[in-house]
Design brief:
single chain, about 220 residues, Rossmann fold, Arc Repressor Mutant, subunit A, 5-stranded parallel sheet, 13 strands
Amino acid sequence: MRYLLVEDNRELADAVVNRLALDGHAVDHAASLAEAQEWLAVASYDLILLDVMLPDGDGRAFLEKSRAHLETPVIVLTARSQVSDRVGALDQGADDYITKPFDFSELEARCRAVLRRRGGSARNQIALGAALFDPLAGTLSHGGTAVELRNREIRLLEVFARHPGQILSKAQIMDRLFVQDAGITENAIEVYVGRLRRRIEGMGVRIETVRGLGYRMETGAT
């Protein structure tokens, strides 16, 4: 998953970015609404975490104005605990809110819940051949047995699982897995794909190389 965090408190922003990165998510950080606009102009996101009080404006007003063309789910981060403030954020287009200070486990749970709702599933499980994959819980099972995956492998599998049969270029995969200044090369994508292929071998799902174009996930005989 790729997230955009809009938060001007650097200490909090660093903590959120580092925590979400532990789960394999790529998180871009904007310290103002202007920076957020710049990120949104060049990248697509699975989820936006939006602070209310920012140096150049109110995050809620930005959200309300952007909702006409912005379909990405948004969780509002707010220090305001009044019911009217929370109701206002939801009415202005937020999918959820969380009150500062918050526990990171609650933030992660709210992210998963919002993404499940947007995915139209109570549990968000995806059948991959003979395996069952839950990208939000980060689990893969085959024959009733849990398959151990590293966080980056989970996120790579999620990229393929959400685009079955579609050719994905190395650049597209990099965009979903890493922030723009991560310094990751396309050779690294080949390494990650190779590792994931070994993990899912024998599960009735495979990742094919489409020469000159990228990779494609297919289900069926391996």
